[in-house]
């Protein structure tokens, strides 16, 4: 599945409803051509190799980064060093909130999972544009409100669902949003390691490895080199309330 085909999807995260993370216009999509050019005019394009941090937790905020292509992972690192993935974001989305205009410290980190092209929008210039254009201000508010809903839904899932339910719910979400039907099977077109899945559901890599092996033995999934194939969606759906 190409980045282009993911253009109208929001990203990958833990959420109780596909409706929440279905399709959302990119940050610039609601804008007229004039406002779109005004936003891009204040930007500076950067290319990030895989593994390069956009910023680290605790760094001072100075603006936001609009993703042009690639994949960016946002995550929180606990004092123990354990990481919880908040989301993977694709083209059209931005990373850098909640302080859009560049004040305070970043409360989580963001890193390029693959080679990514981003446009940095400096906070002070973005604030000035928001004062000048109601359309730009509303687009920023809508995008920020959407992310707040996503992170709120993730917190609810972590606080109210068992880790097994969270894993099953994540697999259902990935199947519905990023899966392609191939005969009776659903192939999730984005590879994930056991560690990736563990970080998304707030678990450990060892636990995920055991659970995937059990599901594979029961004929629910097939997992090979990061690619997940759903063999029995009904079995997953029955375990997601």
Automatic annotation (TrEMBL):
PROSITE patterns: CNMP_BINDING_3 (PS50042), HTH_CRP_2 (PS51063). Residues 161-234 form the HTH crp-type domain. GO terms for cellular component: cytosol. SUPFAM superfamilies: cAMP-binding domain-like (SSF51206), Winged helix' DNA-binding domain (SSF46785). Residues 27-96 form the Cyclic nucleotide-binding domain. Coiled coil: none annotated. InterPro entries: cNMP-bd_dom (IPR000595), cNMP-bd_dom_sf (IPR018490), Env_Response_Regulators (IPR050397), HTH_CRP (IPR012318), RmlC-like_jellyroll (IPR014710), WH_DNA-bd_sf (IPR036390). It comes from the Bacteria. The keyword Phosphoprotein does not apply. The keyword Kinase applies. Keywords: DNA-binding, Kinase, Transcription, Transcription regulation, Transferase. It holds the Pfam family cNMP_binding. One of its GO terms (molecular function) is kinase activity. PANTHER family: CRP FAMILY TRANSCRIPTIONAL REGULATORY PROTEIN (PTHR24567), DNA-BINDING TRANSCRIPTIONAL DUAL REGULATOR CRP (PTHR24567:SF68). This is cAMP-binding domain of CRP or a regulatory subunit of cAMP-dependent protein kinases. It comes from Bradyrhizobium shewense.
């Amino acid at each position: 599945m190409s980045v282009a085909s993911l253009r109208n999807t929001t990203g990958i995260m833990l959420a109780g409803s596909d409706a929440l993370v279905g399709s959302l216009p990119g940050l610039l999509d609601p804008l007229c051509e004039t406002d779109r050019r005004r936003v891009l005019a204040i930007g500076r394009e950067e290319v990030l190799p895989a593994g390069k941090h956009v910023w680290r937790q605790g760094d001072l905020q100075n603006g936001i980064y609009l993703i042009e292509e690639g994949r960016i992972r946002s995550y929180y690192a606990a004092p123990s060093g354990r990481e919880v993935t908040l989301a993977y974001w694709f083209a059209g989305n931005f990373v850098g909130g909640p302080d859009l205009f560049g004040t305070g410290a970043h409360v989580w980190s963001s890193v390029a999972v693959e080679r990514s092209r981003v446009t940095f929008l400096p906070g002070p210039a973005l604030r000035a544009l928001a004062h000048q254009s109601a359309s730009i201000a509303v687009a920023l508010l809508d995008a920020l409100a959407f992310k707040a809903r996503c992170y709120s839904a993730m917190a609810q899932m972590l606080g109210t669902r068992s880790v097994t339910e969270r894993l099953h719910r994540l697999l259902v979400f990935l199947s519905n949003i990023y899966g392609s039907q191939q005969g009776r099977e659903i192939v999730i077109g984005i590879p994930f390691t056991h560690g990736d899945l563990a970080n998304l559901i707030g678990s450990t890599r060892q636990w995920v490895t055991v659970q995937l092996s059990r599901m594979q033995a029961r004929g629910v999934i097939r997992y090979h080199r990061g690619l997940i194939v759903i063999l029995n969606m009904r079995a997953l759906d029955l375990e997601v309330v």
